[in-house]
Amino acid sequence: MSDYLVEHAHGMHVVRDGPRKAPPLLLIHGSGASGGFWSPVVPALAEHHHVVTVDLPGCGQSPPSPPYDVPVQAGRVAAVLDGLGLGPVAAVGHSSGGYVATALAEQRPDLVSSLALISTGPSPDALLPEPFLLRLLLAPPLGPLIWSCRSDAVIRKGIRATAARPVDIPDDLVAGVRGITYRTFRAVLRRNTAYVAERGVPERLAALGLPALVLFGTADPRWDPSSVRRYEAVPGARVEMLPGVGHVPTLEAPGPTGDLLLGFTAAG
Predict the structure, then answer these.
(1) 3-state DSSP call for residue 14?
(2) Count of H helices and E strands in the chain?
(3) Structural domain containing residue 254
(4) Per-residue b or e along 213-241, where b marks 16 or more CB atoms closer than 10 Å to that residue's CB
(5) For the chain, what is the domain count?
(6) 243 exposed, middle or buried (CB, 10 Å; 0-12, 13-18, 19+)?
(7) Which candidate among 88, 151, 192, 252 keeps its CA 20 to 30 Å from the CA of 171?
(8) If the chain, 268 residues long, is cut into consecutive pieces of 10 residues, what is the mean pLDDT of each piece?
(9) What angle do CA 10, 15, 21 make, to 5 degrees?
(10) Omega of the bond prior to 67 within 30 degrees of 0, cis?
(11) Which positions ≥6 away from 157 have C-beta within 8 Å?
Protein backbone atom coordinates (compact mmCIF):
# COMPACT_ATOMS: atom_id res chain seq x y z
CA MET A 1 0.00 0.00 0.00
CA SER A 2 1.54 3.31 -1.03
CA ASP A 3 -1.38 5.72 -1.24
CA TYR A 4 -1.66 9.10 0.43
CA LEU A 5 -3.63 8.96 3.68
CA VAL A 6 -4.81 11.75 5.98
CA GLU A 7 -6.04 11.06 9.48
CA HIS A 8 -6.34 12.63 12.91
CA ALA A 9 -4.82 11.03 15.99
CA HIS A 10 -4.35 12.35 19.51
CA GLY A 11 -5.36 15.85 18.47
CA MET A 12 -2.98 15.98 15.53
CA HIS A 13 -3.42 16.10 11.77
CA VAL A 14 -1.33 13.25 10.35
CA VAL A 15 -0.43 12.57 6.72
CA ARG A 16 1.09 9.27 5.59
CA ASP A 17 2.87 8.74 2.26
CA GLY A 18 4.79 5.86 0.74
CA PRO A 19 4.65 2.07 1.10
CA ARG A 20 3.35 1.03 4.52
CA LYS A 21 5.95 -1.73 4.81
CA ALA A 22 8.87 0.58 4.01
CA PRO A 23 11.11 1.88 6.82
CA PRO A 24 9.18 4.58 8.72
CA LEU A 25 10.32 8.21 8.57
CA LEU A 26 8.79 10.87 10.82
CA LEU A 27 8.77 14.55 9.80
CA ILE A 28 8.26 17.26 12.46
CA HIS A 29 7.93 20.92 11.45
CA GLY A 30 9.22 23.95 13.36
CA SER A 31 7.38 26.70 15.24
CA GLY A 32 5.18 29.00 13.20
CA ALA A 33 4.99 26.33 10.51
CA SER A 34 3.08 23.19 9.55
CA GLY A 35 3.61 19.84 7.88
CA GLY A 36 3.27 21.62 4.54
CA PHE A 37 6.85 22.84 4.84
CA TRP A 38 7.94 19.25 4.04
CA SER A 39 5.89 18.98 0.84
CA PRO A 40 8.78 19.60 -1.60
CA VAL A 41 10.85 16.70 -0.20
CA VAL A 42 8.09 14.20 0.59
CA PRO A 43 7.78 12.66 -2.92
CA ALA A 44 11.46 11.65 -3.00
CA LEU A 45 11.39 10.39 0.59
CA ALA A 46 8.19 8.41 0.00
CA GLU A 47 9.87 6.36 -2.73
CA HIS A 48 11.91 4.67 -0.01
CA HIS A 49 10.04 5.27 3.24
CA HIS A 50 6.69 5.16 4.92
CA VAL A 51 6.62 8.90 5.59
CA VAL A 52 4.58 10.24 8.52
CA THR A 53 4.12 14.03 8.64
CA VAL A 54 2.43 15.67 11.61
CA ASP A 55 0.94 19.08 12.30
CA LEU A 56 1.84 19.77 15.92
CA PRO A 57 -1.01 21.03 18.15
CA GLY A 58 -2.07 24.56 17.25
CA CYS A 59 -0.33 24.40 13.87
CA GLY A 60 -1.64 23.68 10.39
CA GLN A 61 -4.83 21.63 10.67
CA SER A 62 -4.31 20.57 14.30
CA PRO A 63 -6.35 22.45 16.92
CA PRO A 64 -4.64 24.30 19.78
CA SER A 65 -3.88 22.11 22.79
CA PRO A 66 -1.72 23.67 25.50
CA PRO A 67 0.65 23.22 27.18
CA TYR A 68 3.33 23.42 24.49
CA ASP A 69 6.36 22.28 26.49
CA VAL A 70 8.71 20.36 24.23
CA PRO A 71 8.53 17.12 26.26
CA VAL A 72 4.72 17.33 26.19
CA GLN A 73 4.76 17.74 22.41
CA ALA A 74 7.10 14.77 22.14
CA GLY A 75 4.75 12.68 24.26
CA ARG A 76 1.89 13.48 21.91
CA VAL A 77 3.96 12.44 18.90
CA ALA A 78 4.87 9.22 20.71
CA ALA A 79 1.17 8.51 21.22
CA VAL A 80 0.59 8.97 17.48
CA LEU A 81 3.37 6.52 16.64
CA ASP A 82 2.08 4.01 19.18
CA GLY A 83 -1.40 4.33 17.71
CA LEU A 84 -0.06 3.68 14.22
CA GLY A 85 2.03 0.77 15.43
CA LEU A 86 5.20 2.39 14.15
CA GLY A 87 8.68 2.37 15.59
CA PRO A 88 11.51 2.66 15.68
CA VAL A 89 11.45 5.55 13.18
CA ALA A 90 14.04 7.84 11.68
CA ALA A 91 12.91 11.14 13.23
CA VAL A 92 13.54 14.34 11.25
CA GLY A 93 12.92 17.79 12.69
CA HIS A 94 13.15 21.22 11.09
CA SER A 95 14.17 24.12 13.34
CA SER A 96 12.43 23.68 16.71
CA GLY A 97 10.93 20.48 15.35
CA GLY A 98 14.41 19.13 16.02
CA TYR A 99 13.80 19.76 19.72
CA VAL A 100 10.62 17.69 19.63
CA ALA A 101 12.42 14.91 17.75
CA THR A 102 15.25 14.96 20.30
CA ALA A 103 12.81 14.94 23.23
CA LEU A 104 10.97 12.03 21.61
CA ALA A 105 14.22 10.04 21.57
CA GLU A 106 14.91 11.03 25.18
CA GLN A 107 11.48 9.88 26.36
CA ARG A 108 11.00 6.86 24.13
CA PRO A 109 14.29 5.45 22.86
CA ASP A 110 12.33 2.44 21.63
CA LEU A 111 10.59 4.65 19.07
CA VAL A 112 13.61 6.38 17.49
CA SER A 113 16.38 4.71 15.50
CA SER A 114 18.12 7.88 14.27
CA LEU A 115 17.78 11.67 14.32
CA ALA A 116 18.15 14.24 11.56
CA LEU A 117 18.02 17.91 12.57
CA ILE A 118 17.61 20.62 9.94
CA SER A 119 18.32 24.26 10.89
CA THR A 120 18.02 23.35 14.57
CA GLY A 121 19.78 25.86 16.80
CA PRO A 122 22.05 24.27 19.41
CA SER A 123 21.40 26.75 22.25
CA PRO A 124 19.74 30.16 22.82
CA ASP A 125 22.97 32.14 22.42
CA ALA A 126 23.21 31.05 18.77
CA LEU A 127 19.96 32.81 17.85
CA LEU A 128 20.42 35.80 15.53
CA PRO A 129 18.34 39.02 15.68
CA GLU A 130 14.97 38.46 14.06
CA PRO A 131 14.23 40.04 10.66
CA PHE A 132 12.27 43.28 10.97
CA LEU A 133 8.99 41.81 9.69
CA LEU A 134 9.09 38.98 12.22
CA ARG A 135 9.85 41.41 15.04
CA LEU A 136 6.87 43.49 13.96
CA LEU A 137 4.59 40.45 13.96
CA LEU A 138 5.74 39.28 17.40
CA ALA A 139 6.27 42.40 19.48
CA PRO A 140 3.43 43.64 21.69
CA PRO A 141 1.34 45.71 21.81
CA LEU A 142 0.87 45.85 18.03
CA GLY A 143 1.98 42.28 17.35
CA PRO A 144 -1.33 40.55 18.21
CA LEU A 145 -3.31 43.02 16.08
CA ILE A 146 -0.99 42.76 13.09
CA TRP A 147 -0.89 38.96 13.46
CA SER A 148 -4.67 38.65 13.40
CA CYS A 149 -4.87 40.81 10.26
CA ARG A 150 -2.12 39.07 8.30
CA SER A 151 -2.76 38.78 4.59
CA ASP A 152 -1.46 35.91 2.48
CA ALA A 153 1.14 38.33 1.11
CA VAL A 154 2.40 39.14 4.61
CA ILE A 155 2.65 35.44 5.49
CA ARG A 156 4.66 34.82 2.33
CA LYS A 157 6.96 37.74 3.17
CA GLY A 158 7.44 36.36 6.66
CA ILE A 159 8.47 32.96 5.32
CA ARG A 160 10.75 34.50 2.70
CA ALA A 161 12.42 36.57 5.43
CA THR A 162 13.87 33.33 6.79
CA ALA A 163 15.16 32.17 3.40
CA ALA A 164 18.31 33.20 1.55
CA ARG A 165 17.06 32.13 -1.88
CA PRO A 166 13.86 32.88 -3.80
CA VAL A 167 11.22 30.31 -2.85
CA ASP A 168 7.80 29.34 -4.15
CA ILE A 169 5.26 29.19 -1.35
CA PRO A 170 2.14 27.17 -2.22
CA ASP A 171 -1.31 28.25 -1.06
CA ASP A 172 -1.73 25.21 1.20
CA LEU A 173 1.47 26.08 3.02
CA VAL A 174 0.20 29.62 3.61
CA ALA A 175 -3.12 28.21 4.85
CA GLY A 176 -1.27 26.00 7.32
CA VAL A 177 0.54 29.00 8.78
CA ARG A 178 -2.60 31.13 8.86
CA GLY A 179 -4.22 28.76 11.37
CA ILE A 180 -1.59 29.48 14.03
CA THR A 181 -2.73 32.02 16.61
CA TYR A 182 -0.49 34.69 18.11
CA ARG A 183 -0.94 33.23 21.59
CA THR A 184 0.00 29.72 20.47
CA PHE A 185 3.06 30.91 18.58
CA ARG A 186 4.38 32.96 21.49
CA ALA A 187 3.79 30.07 23.90
CA VAL A 188 5.61 27.63 21.62
CA LEU A 189 8.59 29.99 21.30
CA ARG A 190 8.84 30.37 25.08
CA ARG A 191 8.75 26.63 25.70
CA ASN A 192 11.29 25.95 22.95
CA THR A 193 13.68 28.42 24.55
CA ALA A 194 13.18 26.80 27.95
CA TYR A 195 14.04 23.37 26.53
CA VAL A 196 17.39 24.39 25.03
CA ALA A 197 18.22 26.74 27.90
CA GLU A 198 17.97 23.79 30.27
CA ARG A 199 20.39 21.72 28.17
CA GLY A 200 21.85 22.34 24.73
CA VAL A 201 20.97 20.06 21.82
CA PRO A 202 24.53 18.79 21.17
CA GLU A 203 24.77 17.70 24.80
CA ARG A 204 21.41 15.95 24.56
CA LEU A 205 22.42 14.15 21.35
CA ALA A 206 25.71 13.01 22.89
CA ALA A 207 23.79 11.44 25.78
CA LEU A 208 21.44 9.62 23.40
CA GLY A 209 24.16 7.93 21.36
CA LEU A 210 21.99 7.66 18.23
CA PRO A 211 23.10 8.12 14.62
CA ALA A 212 22.59 11.81 13.88
CA LEU A 213 22.60 14.08 10.84
CA VAL A 214 22.73 17.85 11.36
CA LEU A 215 21.98 19.97 8.30
CA PHE A 216 22.40 23.75 8.15
CA GLY A 217 22.36 26.44 5.49
CA THR A 218 25.44 28.64 5.34
CA ALA A 219 23.20 31.72 5.06
CA ASP A 220 20.69 30.90 7.81
CA PRO A 221 19.31 34.25 9.10
CA ARG A 222 17.73 32.71 12.21
CA TRP A 223 20.66 30.84 13.74
CA ASP A 224 24.35 31.64 13.52
CA PRO A 225 25.53 29.17 10.85
CA SER A 226 28.90 28.78 12.59
CA SER A 227 27.08 27.38 15.63
CA VAL A 228 26.54 24.14 13.71
CA ARG A 229 30.14 23.29 14.53
CA ARG A 230 29.07 22.62 18.10
CA TYR A 231 27.43 19.45 16.83
CA GLU A 232 30.81 18.15 15.71
CA ALA A 233 31.47 17.32 19.37
CA VAL A 234 28.66 14.74 19.25
CA PRO A 235 30.23 11.30 18.72
CA GLY A 236 29.29 9.93 15.31
CA ALA A 237 27.24 12.96 14.25
CA ARG A 238 27.37 13.89 10.58
CA VAL A 239 27.31 17.64 9.94
CA GLU A 240 26.41 18.98 6.48
CA MET A 241 26.25 22.58 5.24
CA LEU A 242 24.22 23.75 2.24
CA PRO A 243 25.95 26.71 0.52
CA GLY A 244 23.85 29.83 0.08
CA VAL A 245 20.80 28.30 1.77
CA GLY A 246 18.88 29.97 4.58
CA HIS A 247 16.63 28.63 7.32
CA VAL A 248 14.25 26.55 5.17
CA PRO A 249 16.29 24.06 3.11
CA THR A 250 13.15 22.07 2.33
CA LEU A 251 11.87 25.03 0.31
CA GLU A 252 15.18 26.50 -0.87
CA ALA A 253 17.04 23.32 -1.82
CA PRO A 254 14.60 20.39 -1.71
CA GLY A 255 16.69 18.18 -4.01
CA PRO A 256 19.95 18.32 -2.00
CA THR A 257 18.02 18.18 1.27
CA GLY A 258 16.13 15.06 0.23
CA ASP A 259 19.29 13.42 -1.07
CA LEU A 260 21.10 14.02 2.22
CA LEU A 261 18.21 12.60 4.22
CA LEU A 262 17.96 9.52 2.01
CA GLY A 263 21.71 8.97 2.14
CA PHE A 264 21.65 9.23 5.92
CA THR A 265 18.74 6.83 6.41
CA ALA A 266 20.21 4.35 3.95
CA ALA A 267 23.53 4.36 5.81
CA GLY A 268 21.80 3.89 9.15
Answers:
(1) strand
(2) 11, 8
(3) 5-267
(4) bbbbbebbbbbbbebbebbeebeebbbbe
(5) 1
(6) exposed
(7) 192
(8) 61 93 97 95 97 96 95 97 95 98 98 98 94 72 78 90 92 90 92 98 98 98 96 96 98 98 92
(9) 105
(10) yes
(11) 133
